[in-house]
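Ligand: iron/sulfur cluster. Inputs:
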Amino acid sequence: MGNGANSGGRTRNVVFRIKRCDGPGKPSRWEAFRVPVEPNANVISCLNWIAAHPVTMDGRPTTPVVWDSNCLEEVCGACTMVINGRVRQSCSCLIDEYAPNDGDTITLEPMSKFPVVRDLWVDRQRLFEGLKKVKAWAPIDGTYSLGDGPRESPAQQHVRYALSTCMSCGCCLEACPQYLKEEDASKWDTAFVGAAIISQARLFNEHPTGAILKDDRLDALLGVGGINDCGNAQNCVRVCPKDIPLTESIAAIGRAATIHGFKRFFRGA
Ligand code: SF4
Ligand code: SF4
Ligand code: FES
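Predicted complex:
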């Protein structure tokens, strides 16, 4: 197998151990590839190399490894996978940091909380269903001009901007001990929605127009699989690549949901 040893001595070989799966419901297996790595390479460029040279380390031809990606600049979340045991985006994962020496190994696995489509590519629809559950949008109707929207203070903008950077990557859900695994799919409908969804509910509750649906969101988060299922382990905030203050969001929604619950109780609703 070509190994790039002729590219000026700057290239080194890195071993990629990759958890592979041919499709939904199919068994998984591990395969290893020896990849010539240039300085500043990232995981995606190495996966591209493997796709062009689908031969395992022991010389066995195999199918090209499949993964998902889009923006290549840590904005879309599509390339999220588990790299050396930690969930993150593969486009921003530099080999020089993870495998600085010749012969180092990098392990790639698909996220465990979403169904595998193939190899490292997962289906994050479950996350988007969670966003629908809490109506994570500002309701505006029609394509005609509605005039100026309500004013938002710089302080509100500051809080909401941080929350708006969520790219629905799924890292916080992968790391959360309360977010059910893929094999528990039959219980997903009533399972914990996860930190990203709670934080997006906060984003839209604090939006001047989005606040119209605030009660619906809090009702959803007071119900099964809502805020009370958070065990406060705080793994979510540690892995969020956008540094979104997820535990702040969980606390803010927790307070709002408690007040909402009391009001509902005294209204008899
Ligand atoms: S605080 Fe813990 S249980 Fe709650 S969403 Fe974050 S990781 Fe999950
Ligand atoms: S909150 Fe952070 S970790 Fe969770 S989906 Fe959004 S960007 Fe990803
Ligand atoms: S390809 Fe979009 S975040 Fe990596």
